[in-house]
Specification:
three-stranded parallel β-sheet; about 55% helix; transcription regulation; DNA-binding
Length: about 325
DNA sequence: AATGTTAACAACCGCCTGGTC
DNA sequence: CGACCAGGCGGTTGTTAACAT
């Protein structure tokens, strides 16, 4: 198949880069900047295509590249973000300063291999998997399940009050069209507190996201990066304030009567409310307005205990839920 | 020590998108 | 409006080092 136009030239070298080539590229870019990548090889005296130079620079030679093993925090973040946005490696990498999409992708792929090689416990409630597609779905579900259970993923939470703050802090998570949110009905009170809190905050500009900025500022490690980060944060704040948050709040307030306390906060409780909320959730799903919310009974669908015993492909709604987990 | 296997990483390929003419 | 191009992205393959047998 055809190569990129810039690679059609003769005498274009491929394969691993030699230290001399690296040195040439570094020297050229640090003194001239890269400008147009297609011109870089010629000007830098390299027999490579511009695309190859770009990749080498971005993935390996950039001075702000952070090498070495992923920290547990980074790993957690990758897992969370991957759960939210799927295989959008560049997007995920943008949340990990100094890490490249390629690095994260490689890391994830080896991680997937490890996960898939771990034999899952045979299901006691067998469901016939008849075709390839279903097998893939099953595999994805199993993987998602493994991911979640092994990493205490934030989306399965009985501590939603605290953790939903995390969700609210990342617009990419909430904006994801395929995102799932699991609300343990026992935690609805704290969830509604968060929503009420967010509602209150949203009336006061983007104060919620200023806090986010403060948190993320720890990740800024270079002056120019700080500038970029600031832009990103600003766009978050604008996006969230003008689009995301109001729609979220609107979406999150079910069209059923839920009592409020003196502070005008929602009070959710009782089986009737749970049923209504689940009904509302399914309606939202149909409207594709705010899909994939689920309220369940702690007693019936508890995930707080031994996760090993749950087969996501067969348990009541877990199979359905996990099969719609963002692409893996 | 030789060979096979695996994991990690680097690089390439092909497609998509946005800008320009 | 379509063609062309460069840049960006995700999937995939190739390479190599580490480890096991």
């Amino acid at each position: 198949m055809g190569h990129h136009s810039c690679c059609n030239q003769q005498k274009v070298k491929r394969g691993l880069w030699s230290p001399e080539e690296d040195e040439k590229l570094i020297r050229y870019i640090t003194t001239h900047g890269y400008g147009c990548w297609s011109e870089v090889p010629e000007k830098a005296g390299l027999q490579r295509c511009g695309k190859s130079c770009r990749l080498r620079w971005i993935n390996y030679l950039r001075p702000d590249i952070r090498r070495g093993r992923f920290t547990p925090e980074e790993e957690k973040l990758i897992i969370s973000l991957h759960g939210a946005v799927g295989n959008r490696w560049a997007h995920i990498a943008s949340h990990l300063p100094g890490r490249t999409d390629n690095e994260i992708k490689n890391y994830w792929n080896s991680w997937i291999k490890k996960k898939l090689k771990k034999p899952s416990k045979p299901s006691t409630k067998t469901t016939s998997i008849t075709d390839h597609h279903q097998q893939q779905q099953h595999q994805r579900s199993q993987l998602a399940y493994n991911t979640i259970t092994s990493q205490q993923d934030i989306f399965f939470t009985q501590d939603i009050g605290t953790k939903s703050q995390v969700l609210l802090q990342d617009s990419t998570i909430f904006n994801s069209p395929n995102q799932l949110f699991f609300f343990d009905s026992g935690s609805l009170d704290s969830m509604t507190n968060v929503i009420n809190d967010a509602t209150n905050r949203s009336t006061n500009n983007a104060s919620l996201f200023q806090e986010t900025s403060m948190l993320n500022s720890e990740l800024c490690w270079q002056v120019d990066q700080v500038q970029q980060q600031h832009q990103v944060k600003t766009s978050y704040a604008i996006g969230m304030d003008s689009n995301y948050l109001p729609s979220l709040i609107e979406s999150m307030v079910p069209p059923i009567e839920i009592p409020r306390n003196n502070n005008n906060n929602l009070i959710v409780g009782g089986q009737e409310h749970k049923n209504q909320l689940n009904e509302w959730s399914s309606q939202m799903d149909t409207l594709q307005c705010c899909p994939n919310y689920l309220f369940w009974d702690q007693e019936d669908g508890s995930l707080g205990g031994d996760h090993e015993n749950i087969d996501p492909s067969t348990s009541n709604n877990m199979g359905h839920i996990l099969s719609s987990f963002p692409s893996l």
